Amino acid sequence: xxxxxxxxxxxxxxxxxxxxxxxxxxxxxxxxxxxxxxxxxxxxxxxxxxxxxxxxxxxxxxxxxxxxxxxxxxxxxxxxxxxxxxxxxxxxxxxxxxxxxxxxxxxxxxxxxxxxxxxxxxxxxxxxxxxxxxxxxxxxxxxxxxxxxxxxxxxxxxxxxxxxxxxxxxxxxxxxxxxxxxxxxxxxxxxxxxxxxxxxxxxxxxxxxxxxxxxxxxxxxxxxxxxxxxxxxxxxxxxxxxxxxxxxxxxxxxxxxxxxxxxxxxxxxxxxxxxxxxxxxxxxxxxxxxxxxxxxxxxxxxxxxxxxxxxxxxxxxxxxxxxxxxxxxxxxxxxxxxxxxxxxxxxxxxxxxxxxxxxxxxxxxxxxxxxxxxxxxxxxxxxxxxxxxxxxxxxxxxxxxxxxxxxxxxxxxxxxxxxxxxxxxxx
Length: 427
Ligand code: ACO
Fold this sequence. Notes:
By secondary structure, this protein is mainly alpha-helical. Helix content is 51%, strand content 6%. The protein has helices at 33-37, 73-79, 82-91, 97-108, 115-121, 130-144, 154-180, 193-202, 213-225, 233-242, 248-259, 267-278, 284-292, 311-326, 333-346, 349-353, 361-371, 378-398; strands spanning 3-9, 12-19, 27-28, 57-60, 65-68, 71-72. The chain has a 3-stranded antiparallel beta sheet with strand order 1-2-3. Strands 4-5-6 form a 3-stranded antiparallel beta sheet. A hairpin with a 4-residue loop joins strand 4 and strand 5. The radius of gyration is 23 Å and the shape is globular. The N and C termini lie far apart (63 Å). The site of acetyl coenzyme *A has 18 residues, from loops.
């Protein structure tokens, strides 16, 4: 028998079940509230509202813990590979050797794009932001792969999931090449997921890309760090879009649109721009004062859920040092600015009182720049990695018998009902 919470509104008292998950705070189930008490609840930004039940990812923001299917992010980042994490998120368990081989083969053989799809890119302006291309191109996948858009068919759901994970690097690399004015590079089946992506980005007709194990490992780890993050804005967007029965390609395009914003996935680009703007360590106090005066925010700092160090930021900081050492740029002045800024912010009462700590984006910009990517590509890489999280959450939602079309309520504060007047009678 579930615990019950009592809510009194006027003369009415309503009893509401209190649900518990594996971990996390208890959740008051208010589904019957409107029917029984004729009231709505108000929670802009969903700060106190669980929108679904999920078995995929768990975050304890106070303790700085992030688990995927129960496994700590640091263990996955150190010991697993991105494709293995994809399998884990999608299927719930780590794969056996045989299961992984089959999954790897499936993903590898779905990396190519329909030939006609390549022409689609030519319609964009050369200076189009690669995220603008991503929103359009990923949505357009539903025009090319009709045979996996029936959301009620579990086989089609799995095929579309594999297609999205497999084709996203190809699309992202094409967005990059188009932006750079270089010819597209086709995927190669003998390379790993991350090697293949880096080659499609950095190989040119005059010179093939030479694999570097440290940089490939770093890319793979960055993908793992961004693979999923429970019910964040873009994931909730994917779930909401999918709740109407929209096809998975359209839903992921909606997620990409949401991710683009500077408060979400766009923050890594903004964080690097901020470090460039600060430029030197001596300018940090002036910049921090501007943050305290609320002229701007410290990008790459703060998080809705983490009120402690983002566990992904710890791994990202280590990866950042490894990549900079490998490319011979350990003295990068921006790294110095970032480390000093972090030190100052973590000891300043303004940030301590508000529990503002570095998030995953604080060090990712410097790292991605050292890997050879321009800032415009940062959010694209995030979208590529997050696709598996989005599609796993979408699949879980479709398979949840309690799922309904998402339809929030509102507090209406507009004009009361009134009669239409013709234009000649208005003041
Ligand atoms: N710099 C300065 N102050 C901040 C910051 C920041 N980065 N973030 C929050 N604050 C302050 C707010 O001004 C507010 O102060 P107040 O109570 O005195 O008014 C307080 O901290 C709480 O801020 P909220 O906006 O209520 O916190 P919320 O949980 O809504 O915001 C968010 C979370 C959007 C991530 C915010 O911290 C932010 O804008 N950070 C910078 C952008 C960023 O790095 N985003 C990446 C998020 S991680 C990801 O998407 C992978």
